[in-house]
Amino acid sequence: MIGAQVRDRYLSDFKRVEATLPGRAVSWMQNTRRQAFEKFAASGFPTTRDEDWKYTSVAFLGEQEFVPSVAKVCEITQAQISTWAFAGSANHLLVFVDGYYAPGLSKIGAIEKQVLLTSTADLLVKQPELLAPLLQRNIDSAFAALNTAFMTDGMCLYLPAGSIVEDAIHVLYIATSPSKIYHHRNIIVAEDNTQATVIEHYVGINDAVYFNNAITSVDVGNNATIEHYKLQQEGVNAFHIANISAIQNRDSRFNSHSLAFGSRLARNDISTRFQDSGGECEMNGLYVVGGCQHIDHHTCIDHAKPRCTSREYYRGVLSGASRAVFNGKVIVQQDAQKTDAQQANHNLLLSKDAEIDTKPELQIYADDVKCAHGATIGQLDDDMMFYLRSRGISNDMAHGLLTYAFAHDIVDRIKFEPLRLRIEQILMAQLPQGEKIKELL
Amino acid sequence: MLSIKNLHASIEGKEILRGLSLEVKAGEVHAIMGPNGSGKSTLAQVLAGRESYEITGGEVNYRGHNLLEMAPEERAREGVFLAFQYPVEIPGVNNVYLLKAALNAIRKHKGQVELDAMEFLTLIKEKIKVVKMNEDLLYRAVNQGFSGGEKKRNEILQMAVLEPALAILDETDSGLDIDALQIVAGGVNSLRSKERAIIVVTHYQRLLDYIVPDFVHVLSKGRIVKSGGPELALELEQKGYGWVETETRKPAEALAK
């Protein structure tokens, strides 16, 4: 249920900005937005009474008055961009500031002519018919409905059959303004035999309170490969809710990496569905939280067809009074014989006040399958600590080193090297004693 | 160099060391033998600073320092080295980087210049020959996926690089075949010197065929009950540990002096 006051506030916002949103001249888009808003108004935000939101409260949405972000003069400089860009690698860079594409800060390099790499808003003007089926799905949840009603922009990548984008596509979403709500909508369509690497990178530049609500849909065609990274470095007071959902066709590969460091509260729903046989999926995740941060990952791998393989590796490092949630759902449908699914979630608790809720959720309806899962919660190993100290390594350094090594298991799975190096830097800056272990690595 | 007087130590309320005394001078090699549960490994761990043991009495003086007050890393930097009975696997921590950090921590403590990567590599290539260890193992995570023998050789390699003043080998021989045993013993013998003391903790006499000790002590129920020269080890081998239990207990200090 949604309080009348909250609904009225969102309704008046919707009426005010509707005519400024992309796709306003396209009638099906206008209808889609309105239907989505109705859906949101009917359901409202989830509460902790909803099983999927049991451990993550979004009560802040009732308390904070976020207003839709409107396009304005961009105040971000090229110099600032260079601190986030992956220097030296000739990747494509798309920059979005406060929810709107900033072409002046973006740089799309040489790319196969038939490949479409642009902003969603731009495509809604130039080729809206391409987007119709994609924007009309995924509007079931409250946040997805809200996103669809209000979405301003996002990255759009369309790979016609056989096309390959060799350089990584770096998409930077910069939040600069307090009390704003941003609705990013990213679309990746990879037709048969295509390949691309996309890095979604969310950053906040100050301690403003804002709310980022992002959706990414990924269609992976027959024998196509999509490597998807999400690096979340929102501001310390930010709220971040993201939904990444993939559909995989025959013999396709979809690898997702969620690297979560920022925000006050973040929730990630990452899912894939094997709708044909022979697909592979790897879902990797690393969350490093401290202070009063709260980071929630809900993943879902739906093995609907036979002979698909999924691997899931999530690790968390929690300090201070932080909290993390991992809920890993794996569904193996009756049809999905010869499924091979493995899941592991390991957590390191560095303080008494930190809390982790980890829950594997396996639903298996086929009989000839291999499924395994494991979850651990622990502190640093005493034997390892003593071994390092007995070699002259200080207590602090041993502590930092073992924490870093624990997290590095996920970092090792990052194939795009500049990103791997970036994550190592972030870890050293963010982990307790991280600075001190530099000389050891 | 090391003077242990009437040491009592317990773990989880259970007393393991019950009044152990031992004097070790520079240049000496002492073997500590004894049946399972006699406190051999506890002694080794306590000397290295394992915090899970509670010291309930006695004192340990190491080169003029109260050893029991020093953190494990301070002991290491002051020249104490423990070769572990069960070297732990540390995923994600590179073997050679750890060794470099360990060596530089000790060098820094001694006021020596830290070695850079090139100097360190030259040194390690020299030292690794002593233990005939595969160089690939240097670049793996510490002990991860090492065989039992490889783990023990890695311990001896660390010892050779760190050049401790007091080396304590905790059952370094257990689980080794004769070839590996000879390599490990060769590594230890190459470190024997006037400035260095070595304590070899072992269950079996076999190791002492290769590392001939100056003194042999027999540990039983947390105390040294018999001390002697290398011949004591042979006698033990023939008569078994049961023999010392029935022997009149002689104070170890008297013999050591």
What does this structure look like?
The complex is a heterodimer of chains A (441) and B (257). Chain A is of the alpha/beta class and 441 residues long. Chain A has two domains: 4-276, no CATH class; 382-441, no CATH class. Chain A has helices at 4-17, 27-43, 60-63, 78-84, 120-126, 128-135, 142-150, 382-389, 395-411, 417-430, and strands at 67-68, 92-97, 100-101, 116-119, 155-159, 169-175, 180-190, 195-204, 211-220, 225-233, 239-248, 253-260, 265-274, 280-289, 294-303, 309-318, 323-332, 340-349, 355-364, 370-378. In chain A, strands 1, 4, 5, 7, 9, 11, 13, 15, 17 and 19 form a ten-stranded mixed sheet that branches. A ten-stranded mixed sheet of chain A has the order 3-2-6-8-10-12-14-16-18-20, covered by helices on one side. In chain A, helix 2 runs antiparallel to helix 7 (142-150), helix 5 crosses helix 6 (128-135) and helix 9 packs antiparallel against helix 10. Chain A is globular. The termini of chain A are far apart. Chain B is α/β, with parallel strands linked by helices and 257 residues long. Chain B has helices at residues 40-48, 72-77, 95-109, 117-131, 148-162, 178-190, 231-239, 242-246, 252-256, and strands at 2-11, 14-24, 29-33, 54-62, 65-66, 80-83, 90-94, 141-142, 166-170, 197-202, 215-220, 223-228. In chain B, the strands form three sheets. Chain B has a six-stranded mixed sheet, sandwiched between helices. In chain B, helix 6 (178-190) links the parallel strand 9 and strand 10. Chain A binds chain B through residues 381-384, 386-395, 397-398, 401-402, 404-406, 408-409, 439-441, and chain B through 48-52, 71-73, 75-77, 81-82, 84, 87-88, 90-94, 97-99, 101-102, 105-106, 109, 141-142, 158, 162.
